[in-house]
Amino acid sequence: MVTRTISGDSTMDEVLSAFPAAQRALFRKYHIGGCSSCGFQPTDKLSDVLRSHDVQEPVDSVVSFIQESQRMDDRTKVDAKTLKSWIEAKEPMKLVDMRGPDETAFGIIPGALTLTQDLVRQMNEEWPKTTRVVLYCARGMRSADGAAYLAGHGFTSVWSLSGGIEAWTMAGGTLKR
Q1: Domains in the chain: how many in total?
Q2: Is-catalytic flag, 38?
Q3: Among 49, 137, 144, 165, which one carries the catalytic annotation?
Q4: Residue 125 within any structural domain of the chain
Q5: pLDDT by residue (tens digit) across 62-121?
């Protein structure tokens, strides 16, 4: 297990390097970092960012929130080898490609659904919240955001492919063109 330590004196670059899920966590709870009006610089200290965004919680509480958010984020990761074994075993799941049309033109994982507005509506309105949903993108960042979104909307078995389609192909996974 990797020990990750941050404090109020940590720069935002250090915070995001130690806890990649911090970007989503800070935006979700404190509206920090999602747009130019709520942004920060990589060299800004965490305590200064919290102060400038009028966060009233103690820095230690925010750090604990970031750490817990990272633990939750880590629990939604699935590696390419595991996903391949689920597919080979015909495990029930919905595989969703979050990449855009220019990216999917190079191929998708066989059986994957392409993310559209209609599919998002269908997922939220029609899919049981217990459906195993595996999301992927190019490198695993957008799918991690998608997994956080679905988990926040009540899905209990949502996964993000670590390393995305790049990890899939490097692990010998096939693509359908």
Answers
A1: 2
A2: no
A3: 137
A4: yes
A5: 999 999 989 988 889 999 999 999 999 999 999 999 999 999 999 999 999 999 999 999
